[in-house]
Amino acid sequence: MKRTALGLALLLPVTTAHAGDLVVEVSGLRNNQGSLALCVTADPAGFPGCNKAATQRVIPAAQARRPITFPNLPAGTYAVAVIHDENNNGKLDTNFVGIPKEGIAVSNNAVPKFSAPKFRDAGFVLGKQRVTQRVRVVYW
């Protein structure tokens, strides 16, 4: 039993040595209605959706004034997508041509005007140090 506990204790620093904290600061909300869905992904194929998110969180929009922390993420290249789900229906509402009716934001503020955001534009490197992404929600 003591050997098992000692072995696990020795492994703990190794598993967290390459982990870093991501802090997301959101600005530009037009109101406090609904919720914010935040998706953090390391998979370009899963961006900007949440299907292959490394981690995700849904918070009330009123709490978006405070930084949102994603602790102990493995080192790597990530991108963040944020949706202001004003009507709390769990999806991004769009018009008949696919333009969002609700606010969106992505890391590096890489929101293009005429297409979906690209991982290569929104990607950033997370290592052992804390990284802060300040994103501004845009509406069309």
Automatic annotation (TrEMBL):
Record-linked InterPro entries: DUF2141
Keywords: Signal
Protein name, per record: DUF2141 domain-containing protein
Biological classification of the source: Bacteria, Pseudomonadati, Pseudomonadota, Alphaproteobacteria, Hyphomicrobiales
Superkingdom field: Bacteria
Pfam families in UniProt: DUF2141
Residues in the signal sequence: 1-19
